[in-house]
Amino acid sequence: MAGSRLKGLILGKSGQLAQALIANKPAHMECVALGHLDINLAVIDEIESAISTHKAEFIINTAAYTQVDLAESEPSLAFEINELAVKNIAMAAQDKNIRLIHLSTDYVFDGKQSIPYTTSDTPHPINVYGASKLAGEKALQLCMPTQSTTVRTSSVYSQYGTNFVKTMLRLMHEKPELKVISDQISSPTSAKELALFIWALTEQESLSPLYHWSDNGKTSWYEFAVAIQQLALKYGKLEKAITIIPISSQDYGSAAKRPRFSQLDISQSQAILQASPWQENLESVIKRV
After folding, report:
1. Burial class of residue 239, CB neighbours in 10 A (0-12, 13-18, 19+)
2. What SS3 class is residue 51?
3. Which of 40, 42, 154, 210 is 20 to 30 Å from 90 at the Cα level?
């Protein structure tokens, strides 16, 4: 498959990962990105029609419901997008005999572990969002046991869309101080690096059912915010430093519980692409925002 010209569909075109995929597309790839205004993922016929129209040989599904707190009060919508739409995409891909790469999350885990989660660890989500994403993983495996894979990732950031890095930069301009959670540990993930890993997967002769991908290393949201400010000051994205105060998850308060530790073990994936430290990838993004 390496070196051949491939045609594909990217679903969820308005998201930051889809934009990163498009921006970093290999020259020999032909891809069309579709959003919710272009295709109704609740209708299998529309998905099959898109596959036929664009002569797609693979699908990258980045479409998802990602509002973690809101999902607690909108479980039906979360499951409709994160499970039922995935099932429909998988059925269409299976029917058309094409590959499917689907994105999932570290939030399928409960955070009780203290070492990075491997692909063989048993998921146990503690919020609706995580439960809906796990249901999507299971639907994919049930409908399409071969020619498909799920890539779990965490805390995606980029110069595109809405994410923690861009939110922190905005708040650092607007507020004299910030309170940021210090007791949730995970690995940030550059959307660009994740996109490069996904493109590398399209070149593989065979796919494992599950991969984990993130930047190298781990950090808390508080430490990440401190690093964002330091780099923003370094590159002139911020005029002056503000006070950043570490607080606990309990003190912050949110509708959804979040895992305290959700670092993913990416050792298997590093055989395909070498991950860079999150500090390097963050610096690269800060230069561009």
Report:
1. exposed
2. helix
3. 154
